[in-house]
């Protein structure tokens, strides 16, 4: 021993080498089962069966077994039998006097799946599963039929209770039988398997590999009131995942007449992918993914590959049929309501942990995406009518999602509106809405004039920059992102859409005040469209108005009169100013007016003229037709030609009422 070690003296209560244990054999499994089977609860208990079943499936997928029996007895003993090669029982070269079987049963990290020689694409890879089950069983018996001889050995809590014994010759039999009973010291007294859970496990394995037949049997006494799980059944599905999907859909209707299903080998003998996908009308979605028949409830790289293939395929189909709205659809929209089965077989998979709930092999994403993409493109273009139904459905879903998110954000904004009024709002000082009004003005310079011209107590000014978004053609997402609109909604405080509430409106009147030119009319019409679509109650309850700023000032001597438009100006020239040499000024915008002029002509309640915006009452059945008409009028007018809109605002007596307030 070196000096270093001699100089370290151990004191009574110190923490030293003596405290460091090295667990031998299978002791670590019994002391820390969580590391190997994720705990000692019901899920962990069922994982024991999964380990043994996985081994039998690996033997089948490797082409050596065609039949597996799974039996659950009344006393919670599980028997799993396959007709494969049988675990080798010859002496292991590294452990003289011990059979390979005993090494496998009692040593962690022992197995035939490390090199890929005996198995190509196996679910087993750690050399741990069977030894873990052995460690956690109070009784385990293994039977091997190999070379026409039958052998058996028994274990308890990871230790052999006797030697491997020969039971003599057998003829029509080969393979491995594992019969085990979970240790009550680990799982608790009376820990019981759920027949339904084991049955589903067995059935999904049969769907995953067409070349295997699984015979399920369960003591009928265990079934009790369970009407779904059979006491015995032979599970064999030549249709693979397609059969699985058909059974899962039962008689639910799907959006496309045929599911999207297929099977493709990966290039270079790297394994294969199989999938079956349907989009049921009820949108009750699920995804079951597997790697080498091991379920991966937490997904992983293979699912990522499938997502990428589906969303890419759908978007290119959208481009093909020239549907621009397809751009909004996300992988979540495609996946969310779908029934998806995905099974991959790959070499050397890598999972997270021994329970293998998530596939970590990065390569799988690329392999699956490449394998599925072309097939999906073909499937979509083979039946364009059906594919369009699917696409439209997914687009609607995407838009619904955006609407919901928008409504949520809006309601959050209105909830905090007292604290967070938009910075550019010049609010009025009166605390109640009674007798107050807010002017929506175009641009900061007009806003500046209006602020000076207003009555601070009752009049608020909200300058809106530039043209607000044309809401008639905007997507919900764009609308939400528009700063001007969200400021407007915040300032009004009454909410939008379904959240609209007249009582919360912060002003008695909402007055649109834009320049008396075509641009101004455009902005006014955009705002009216916005209110019509998002806050119809505001109009129905008579809160929305248009201000009427003048376009000209006509003066002669000390006398000035303002003209609203050209017709009004001509009229004045012929009447009030007939034969006189007048001074004529045209206002390019509200910002050009003196605050006093603006006040006098447009804002002062005692002198101005306002137009009230009205729509027919939606609650009056006799007016329904007109409501529809107004709606289509709004939709079409808010489209292209600004002159048309201008005309519309000027002329449409039904929509806009001349009123003095
Ligand atoms: N039913 C079987 N038929 C043939 N060989 C088997 C069978 N079950 C187990 N084996 C052999 O025993 C080895 C150990 O199995 P075990 O379940 O402990 O580990 P594994 O399957 O290699 O990996 P994992 O820990 O991921 O399950 C396997 O690699 C295989 O060689
Ligand atoms: Mg295994
Ligand atoms: Mg092992």
Automatic annotation (TrEMBL):
<dbReference type="InterPro" id="IPR013506">
    <property type="entry name" value="Topo_IIA_bsu_dom2"/>
</dbReference>
<dbReference type="InterPro" id="IPR014721">
    <property type="entry name" value="Ribsml_uS5_D2-typ_fold_subgr"/>
</dbReference>
<feature type="binding site">
    <location>
        <position position="55"/>
    </location>
    <ligand>
        <name>ATP</name>
    </ligand>
</feature>
<feature type="site" description="Interaction with DNA">
    <location>
        <position position="522"/>
    </location>
</feature>
<comment type="subunit">
    <text>Heterotetramer composed of ParC and ParE.</text>
</comment>
<dbReference type="GO" id="GO:0046872">
    <property type="term" value="F:metal ion binding"/>
</dbReference>
<feature type="binding site">
    <location>
        <begin position="124"/>
        <end position="130"/>
    </location>
    <ligand>
        <name>ATP</name>
    </ligand>
</feature>
<feature type="binding site">
    <location>
        <position position="356"/>
    </location>
    <ligand>
        <name>ATP</name>
    </ligand>
</feature>
<dbReference type="GO" id="GO:0005524">
    <property type="term" value="F:ATP binding"/>
</dbReference>
<dbReference type="GO" id="GO:0003918">
    <property type="term" value="F:DNA topoisomerase type II (double strand cut, ATP-hydrolyzing) activity"/>
</dbReference>
<dbReference type="Pfam" id="PF00986">
    <property type="entry name" value="DNA_gyraseB_C"/>
</dbReference>
<dbReference type="InterPro" id="IPR005737">
    <property type="entry name" value="TopoIV_B_Gneg"/>
</dbReference>
<keyword id="KW-0547">Nucleotide-binding</keyword>
<dbReference type="InterPro" id="IPR018522">
    <property type="entry name" value="TopoIIA_CS"/>
</dbReference>
<feature type="domain" description="Toprim">
    <location>
        <begin position="436"/>
        <end position="550"/>
    </location>
</feature>
<dbReference type="Pfam" id="PF02518">
    <property type="entry name" value="HATPase_c"/>
</dbReference>
<keyword id="KW-0413">Isomerase</keyword>
<dbReference type="Pfam" id="PF01751">
    <property type="entry name" value="Toprim"/>
</dbReference>
<dbReference type="GO" id="GO:0006265">
    <property type="term" value="P:DNA topological change"/>
</dbReference>
<feature type="binding site">
    <location>
        <position position="82"/>
    </location>
    <ligand>
        <name>ATP</name>
    </ligand>
</feature>
<protein>
    <recommendedName>
        <fullName>DNA topoisomerase 4 subunit B</fullName>
        <ecNumber>5.6.2.2</ecNumber>
    </recommendedName>
</protein>
<dbReference type="Pfam" id="PF00204">
    <property type="entry name" value="DNA_gyraseB"/>
</dbReference>
<dbReference type="InterPro" id="IPR002288">
    <property type="entry name" value="DNA_gyrase_B_C"/>
</dbReference>
<dbReference type="InterPro" id="IPR001241">
    <property type="entry name" value="Topo_IIA"/>
</dbReference>
<dbReference type="GO" id="GO:0003677">
    <property type="term" value="F:DNA binding"/>
</dbReference>
<keyword id="KW-0460">Magnesium</keyword>
<dbReference type="InterPro" id="IPR013760">
    <property type="entry name" value="Topo_IIA-like_dom_sf"/>
</dbReference>
<keyword id="KW-0238">DNA-binding</keyword>
<feature type="site" description="Interaction with DNA">
    <location>
        <position position="645"/>
    </location>
</feature>
<dbReference type="InterPro" id="IPR036890">
    <property type="entry name" value="HATPase_C_sf"/>
</dbReference>
<keyword id="KW-0799">Topoisomerase</keyword>
<feature type="binding site">
    <location>
        <position position="15"/>
    </location>
    <ligand>
        <name>ATP</name>
    </ligand>
</feature>
<dbReference type="GO" id="GO:0007059">
    <property type="term" value="P:chromosome segregation"/>
</dbReference>
<dbReference type="InterPro" id="IPR013759">
    <property type="entry name" value="Topo_IIA_B_C"/>
</dbReference>
<dbReference type="GO" id="GO:0005694">
    <property type="term" value="C:chromosome"/>
</dbReference>
<dbReference type="InterPro" id="IPR006171">
    <property type="entry name" value="TOPRIM_dom"/>
</dbReference>
<comment type="function">
    <text>Topoisomerase IV is essential for chromosome segregation. It relaxes supercoiled DNA. Performs the decatenation events required during the replication of a circular DNA molecule.</text>
</comment>
<comment type="similarity">
    <text>Belongs to the type II topoisomerase family. ParE type 1 subfamily.</text>
</comment>
<dbReference type="InterPro" id="IPR020568">
    <property type="entry name" value="Ribosomal_Su5_D2-typ_SF"/>
</dbReference>
<keyword id="KW-0067">ATP-binding</keyword>
<feature type="site" description="Interaction with DNA">
    <location>
        <position position="470"/>
    </location>
</feature>
<keyword id="KW-0479">Metal-binding</keyword>
């Amino acid at each position: 021993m070196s000096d270093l070690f001699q100089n370290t003296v151990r004191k009574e209560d110190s923490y030293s080498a003596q405290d460091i244990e090295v667990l031998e054999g299978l002791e670590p499994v019994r002391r820390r089962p969580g590391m190997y089977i994720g705990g000692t609860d019901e899920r962990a208990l069922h994982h024991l069966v999964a380990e043994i079943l996985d081994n039998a499936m690996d033997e089948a997928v490797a082409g050596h077994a065609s039949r597996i029996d799974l039996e659950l007895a009344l006393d919670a003993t599980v028997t799993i039998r396959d007709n494969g090669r049988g675990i080798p029982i010859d002496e292991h070269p590294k452990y003289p006097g011990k059979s390979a079987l005993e090494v496998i049963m009692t040593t962690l990290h022992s197995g035939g799946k490390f090199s890929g020689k005996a198995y190509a694409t196996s679910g087993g890879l750690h050399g741990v599963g069977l030894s873990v089950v052995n460690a956690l069983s109070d009784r385990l018996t293994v039977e091997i039929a190999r070379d026409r001889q039958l052998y058996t050995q028994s274990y308890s809590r990871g230790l052999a209770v006797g030697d491997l014994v020969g039971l003599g010759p057998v003829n029509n039999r080969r393979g491995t039988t594992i019969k085990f009973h979970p240790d009550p010291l680990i799982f608790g007294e009376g820990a019981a398997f759920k027949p339904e859970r084991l049955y589903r496990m067995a059935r999904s394995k049969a769907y995953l590999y067409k070349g295997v037949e699984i015979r399920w049997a369960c003591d009928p006494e265990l079934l009790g009131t369970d009407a779904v799980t059979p006491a015995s059944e032979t599970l064999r599905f030549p249709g693979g995942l397609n059969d699985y999907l058909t059974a899962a859909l039962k008689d639910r209707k799907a959006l496309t007449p045929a599911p999207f299903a297929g099977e493709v080998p990966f290039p270079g003998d790297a394994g294969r992918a199989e999938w079956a996908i349907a989009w049921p009308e009820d949108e009750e979605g699920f995804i079951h993914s597997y790697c080498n028949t091991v379920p991966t409830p937490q997904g992983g790289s293979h699912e990522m590959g499938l997502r990428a293939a589906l969303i890419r395929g759908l978007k290119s189909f959208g481009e093909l049929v020239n549907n621009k709205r397809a751009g909004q659809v996300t992988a979540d929209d495609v996946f969310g309501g779908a029934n998806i089965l995905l099974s991959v077989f790959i070499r050397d998979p890598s999972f997270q942990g021994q329970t293998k709930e998530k596939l970590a092999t990065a390569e799988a994403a690329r392999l699956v995406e490449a394998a599925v993409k072309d097939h999906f493109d073909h499937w979509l273009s083979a039946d364009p009518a059906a594919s369009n139904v699917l696409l439209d459905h997914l687009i609607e879903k995407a838009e619904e999602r955006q609407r919901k998110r928008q409504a949520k954000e809006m309601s959050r904004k209105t909830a905090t509106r007292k604290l967070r009024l938009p910075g550019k709002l010049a609010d009025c000082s009166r605390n109640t809405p009674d007798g107050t009004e807010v002017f929506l003005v175009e641009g900061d310079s007009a806003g500046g004039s209006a602020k000076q011209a207003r009555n601070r107590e009752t009049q608020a000014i909200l300058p809106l920059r530039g043209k607000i978004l044309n809401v008639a053609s905007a997507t919900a997402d764009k609308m939400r992102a528009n700063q001007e609109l969200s400021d407007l909604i915040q300032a009004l405080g009454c909410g939008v859409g379904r959240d609209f509430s007249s009582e919360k409106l912060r002003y008695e009147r909402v007055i649109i005040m834009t320049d008396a030119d075509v641009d101004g009319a455009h902005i006014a019409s955009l705002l009216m469209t916005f209110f019509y679509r998002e806050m119809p109650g505001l109009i129905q309850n008579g809160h929305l108005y248009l201000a009427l700023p003048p376009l000209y000032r006509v003066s002669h001597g000390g006398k000035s009169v303002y003209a609203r438009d050209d017709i009004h100006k001509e009229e004045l020239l012929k009447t009030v100013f007939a034969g006189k040499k007048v001074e004529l000024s045209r206002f390019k915008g509200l910002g050009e007016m003196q605050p006093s002029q603006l006040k006098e002509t447009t804002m002062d309640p005692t002198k101005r003229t306002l137009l009230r915006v009205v729509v027919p009452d939606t609650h009056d059945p006799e007016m329904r037709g007109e409501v529809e008409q107004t709606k289509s009028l709004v939709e079409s007018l808010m489209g292209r030609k600004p002159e048309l809109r201008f005309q519309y605002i000027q002329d449409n007596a039904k929509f806009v009422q001349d009123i003095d307030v």
